[in-house]
Amino acid sequence: MKLKVLWIGKTQEQWVRAGIDEYAGRIRRYAPLEVAEAKEEKGAEVEAGRDAECARLEKQLGKNTRLVLLDERGEEMDSRQFAAYLGRERDTGTGELAFAIGGAYGFSEAFRKRAHKTIALSRMTFTHQMVRVFLLEQIYRAFTILNNEPYHH
What angle do CA 5, 7, 12 make, to 5 degrees? Predict the structure, then answer.
């Protein structure tokens, strides 16, 4: 199974980029991973900006890609539940699984309807920059759980 992690906007902070690089490298020991940024829409009205950003994300998805949105209103899972979900997707033949982190105004309704699942990392609010590292760390943790490795304890 190939993984994609997509988000809106450039990663500004060097320490965030370092975290992304660290966990992306760890994940690639278990599965192919593509990380991609889509341009942030600036100066547009909220709905038009959200639609434009989601259209950019959509262009990076294959026809059969299963899409998971990260959204504060999504389903909460602990790390073991998330690992089980990732394992089921892998074991049932999902070719490509993409995780999308929206921009400041979230996702358009059309993009939400395209999604297979919506998850929340937490009910707390985090910066979009930090969520990138948190998601990648959780994907890595999931693979270590699935492989009975000692990282998760």
Answer: 115
